[in-house]
Design the sequence.
């Protein structure tokens, strides 16, 4: 079990931030939401180059008045996964140790729509709290981070006595990998991997299918500075390449992770010592590498520059303002900026930062996930020092 002083430190900082800024906080975020009307450019100037103005829409928050919808469960919104069959988004809610589901407009979705007493949250169990007989837990937070949707056609990742395939799989800072299927337990995930005794602090999660058809799960263990890999039975696998970058400076560890075009992209943040469970945020503190599915380094894509504890990754599908389909967007947790890199040559070349109508970089406090759905770039964030949450999207307005 990891040192809980880290959690106390994080929440104390958040509590101070809320106490000092809450009376002003909603209006700040509302101003951004009001500006971000698709097809308009409030506050812009004539002559602004086309495709260069972006703003964001706040869809959901746990703070009333910050977004179009309010859900108290959305606290420190982290990982984001789309169910392509329902077009609903699943979010890993780090603070309550849960996951919630939303439509693309931010409306909460019950786990079973026809249920007369709808349940809106899936609890992600803390290591050691699960009862393997009843599949219930104590409700203690596990601090989930990454989440992936497991397609029903995929083989493996079976859970429960009736061996049902996981619908969603979660990584958690408590050192666990949990899986959920509503036919196993409607409101609780099941722990499939428990590496809490090894000090694992999982910050991100990705899923990939090998050429053989086998499926692999990749989790970034920030504390131990490595990427853990599991097969479709949740059994650890030692990848041939080991996800090693021999030129990575000491003190940087895997943070975010994503399957992009058949490669595993890993972001690196600097460990905040001595605990090495949180990030040391500062300009230039970040790297992005591309590995094959066996963990062999293919390319150092991005080194430092505008990176600041990068976590979110998304490739532009067609066009996003002035940015074309070979553009990788990297979201900084450290300063909330979204930076764009041209990866058409195999190396990430910086081509700009998403800016608002005033020519200022968009800055979303404690930014985590990035995910394209249509022309919108959806995001999650742990606003107010991770004490609260935000779900919304960024849109090109000019």
Sequence:
């Amino acid at each position: 079990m990891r040192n809980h002083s880290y959690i106390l430190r994080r929440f104390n900082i958040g509590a101070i931030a809320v106490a000092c800024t809450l009376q002003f906080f909603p209006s700040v975020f509302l101003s951004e939401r009001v500006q971000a009307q698709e097809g308009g450019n409030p506050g812009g100037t004539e002559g602004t180059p086309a495709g260069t103005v972006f703003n964001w829409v706040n869809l959901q928050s746990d703070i009333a008045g910050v977004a179009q919808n309010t859900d108290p469960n959305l606290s420190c919104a982290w990982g984001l996964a789309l169910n392509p069959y329902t077009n609903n988004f699943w979010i890993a809610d780090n603070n309550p140790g849960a996951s919630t589901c939303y439509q693309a407009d931010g409306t909460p979705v019950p786990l079973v729509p026809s249920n007369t007493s709808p349940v809106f949250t899936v609890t992600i169990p803390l290591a050691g709290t699960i009862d393997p007989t009843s599949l219930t837990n104590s409700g203690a937070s596990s601090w989930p981070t990454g989440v992936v949707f497991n397609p029903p056609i995929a083989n493996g990742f079976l859970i429960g006595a009736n061996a049902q395939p996981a619908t969603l799989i979660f990584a958690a800072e408590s050192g666990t990998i949990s899986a959920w299927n509503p036919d196993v337990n409607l409101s609780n995930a099941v722990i499939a991997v428990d590496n809490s005794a090894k000090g694992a602090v999982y910050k991100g999660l990705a899923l990939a299918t090998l050429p053989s058809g086998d499926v692999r799960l990749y989790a970034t263990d920030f504390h131990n500075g490595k990427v853990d890999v599991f097969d479709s039975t949740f059994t650890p696998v030692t990848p041939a390449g080991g996800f090693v970058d021999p030129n990575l400076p000491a003190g940087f560890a895997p943070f975010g992770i994503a399957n992009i075009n058949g490669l595993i992209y890993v972001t690196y943040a600097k460990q905040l010592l001595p605990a090495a469970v949180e990030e040391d945020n500062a300009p230039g503190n970040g790297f992005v590498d591309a590995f094959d599915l066996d963990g062999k380094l293919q390319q150092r894509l991005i080194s430092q520059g505008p990176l600041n504890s990068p976590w979110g990754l998304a490739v532009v599908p067609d066009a996003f303002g002035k940015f074309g389909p070979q553009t990788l967007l990297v979201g900084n947790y450290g300063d909330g900026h979204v930076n764009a890199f041209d990866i058409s040559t195999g190396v990430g070349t910086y081509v700009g930062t998403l800016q608002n109508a005033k020519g200022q970089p968009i800055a979303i406090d404690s930014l985590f996930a990035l995910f394209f759905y249509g022309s919108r770039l959806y995001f999650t964030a742990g606003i107010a020092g991770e004490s609260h949450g935000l779900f919304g999207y960024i849109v090109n307005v000019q």
Remarks:
- The chain has one domain: 69-372.
